[in-house]
């Protein structure tokens, strides 16, 4: 039984023998003392140092692999909330916008405006699913834009970019081989983008992509509508140019990417290798 265990052990060990003892035994077979001294210097100080360093590297690699495999569930827990944009503190270091451009509505306007309408903000509807469904069927709302109070027609569309961000995050979890835990995303489906129709407005509105002074009459939904709200989650996006950090591995095939991040190792890390996309600003 002992021989079988030793044989099994030897089949999986990279170095199934004590190389220092082996070298010492081989050196004793050299009769010439000067030759033995030279061989010892070459083997012990040269080859021995190389083997020792290699074994340390393998042990460090093994330790890191086991650390990556042991993933506490709490390190990848996703939490979210809803907040008024003006109340967001960029120095909080805990919660971040699901969509970074929500901090700058002008950027949303450039991305969302169309030839026949322009972006007028985003609202959060504090209502149940049935009311939200009825709200989406409303074809138009009336209101005014500009300091002059010009009458305008508005319509709303569900802000699908938040749902897209969640689906994208799910893909990143899969790509990083991290178990996915369902995230409470009910609030994300209650955000709606507001659009003002260009038809009927003066020529100066033909090229506008965003207005911040819209006053909209939402009728029976008025008390449920919260303007200038945005969702936050505990995920921060950090973009790196990985070419600056690549270190070739021993096999010459793979590369190790080393990133220096602030904040220690308290939270989980996910990486996305698709160019031009980062968490918080998905396509």
What does this molecule look like?
Helices cover about 30% and strands about 20% of the residues. The chain has about 280 residues and is an alpha+beta fold. The strands form 3 sheets. A 6-stranded antiparallel sheet has the order 7-4-5-6-3-8, covered by helices on one side. Strands 1-9-2 form a 3-stranded antiparallel sheet, with no helix packed on it. β10 and β11 form a beta hairpin. The N terminus and C terminus are likely disordered. The chain is elongated. α2 packs antiparallel against α3.
Summarize the structure.
Helix content is 31%, strand content 19%.
Blueprint of the fold:
Elements: H1 2-12, H2 19-27, H3 33-69, E1 80-84, E2 96-97, H4 105-112, E3 117-125, H5 129-137, E4 141-145, E5 150-158, H6 161-175, E6 191-197, E7 215-217, E8 225-227, E9 229-233, E10 246-248, E11 255-257
Antiparallel strand pairs: 1-9, 2-9, 3-6, 3-8, 4-5, 4-7, 5-6, 10-11
Helix pairs in contact: 2-3
């Amino acid at each position: 039984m002992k021989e079988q265990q030793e044989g099994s052990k030897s089949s999986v060990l990279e170095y199934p023998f004590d190389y220092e003892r082996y070298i010492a035994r081989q050196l004793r077979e050299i009769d010439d003392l000067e030759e033995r001294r030279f061989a010892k210097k070459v083997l012990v100080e040269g080859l021995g140092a190389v083997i020792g360093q290699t074994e340390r590297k393998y042990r460090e690699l093994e330790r890191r692999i086991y650390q990556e495999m042991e993933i506490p569930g709490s390190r990848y827990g996703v939490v979210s909330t809803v907040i008024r944009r003006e109340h967001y503190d960029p120095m909080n270091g805990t919660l971040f916008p699901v969509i970074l451009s929500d901090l700058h509505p002008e950027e949303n306007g450039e991305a969302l405006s169309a030839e026949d309408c322009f972006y007028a903000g985003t609202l959060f509807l504090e209502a149940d699913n049935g009311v939200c469904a009825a709200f989406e069927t409303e074809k138009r709302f009336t209101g005014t834009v500009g300091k002059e109070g010009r009458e305008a027609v508005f319509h709303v569309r569900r802000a699908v970019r938040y749902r897209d961000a969640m689906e994208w995050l799910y893909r990143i979890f899969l790509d990083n081989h991290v178990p996915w835990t369902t995230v409470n995303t009910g609030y994300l489906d209650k955000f709606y983008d507001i659009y003002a129709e260009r038809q009927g407005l003066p020529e100066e509105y033909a090229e506008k992509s965003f207005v911040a002074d819209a006053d909209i009459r939402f009728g029976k939904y008025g008390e449920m509508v919260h303007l200038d709200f945005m969702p936050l989650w505990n995920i921060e996006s950090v973009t790196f140019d990985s070419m600056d950090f690549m270190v070739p591995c021993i096999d010459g095939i793979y590369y190790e990417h080393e990133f220096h991040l602030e904040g220690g190792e308290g939270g989980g890390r996910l990486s996305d290798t698709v160019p031009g996309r980062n968490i918080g600003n998905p396509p």
